[in-house]
Description:
alpha+beta, 5 strands, 19% strand
Amino acid sequence: MSFYAAPNQQRHLRACMVCSIVQSQTKFQRDGCPNCETSLQLRGNSEAIQECTSQVFEGLIAVRDPTVSWVARWQRLDNYVPGTYATKVTGTLPDYIIGSLEDQGVKYVPRDGTTAEEAT
Length: 120
């Protein structure tokens, strides 16, 4: 697994507000989110990418094997694919997306350090 973004490309990076994976906007456009695609349907959907990902995030964690990493467990990443994740993602999902996630049985936990109760 490798992740490198040249300094002039870092402004194109975005983090998923649901799982916090960090990818380029182009990769979200082309492939969607490797963890949340069935729920968010980001592939080929620029509007959904704008609503469900954020350019404002802190810290990066490279996770090779989420099932054995204590950092992955601590960040609630242990059920996700290997990759690079933000430790904190700033942004708010629209209410209709949160509702859609709940309808699909996905419990949304904000990745900005607040709890869902604090966010409302």
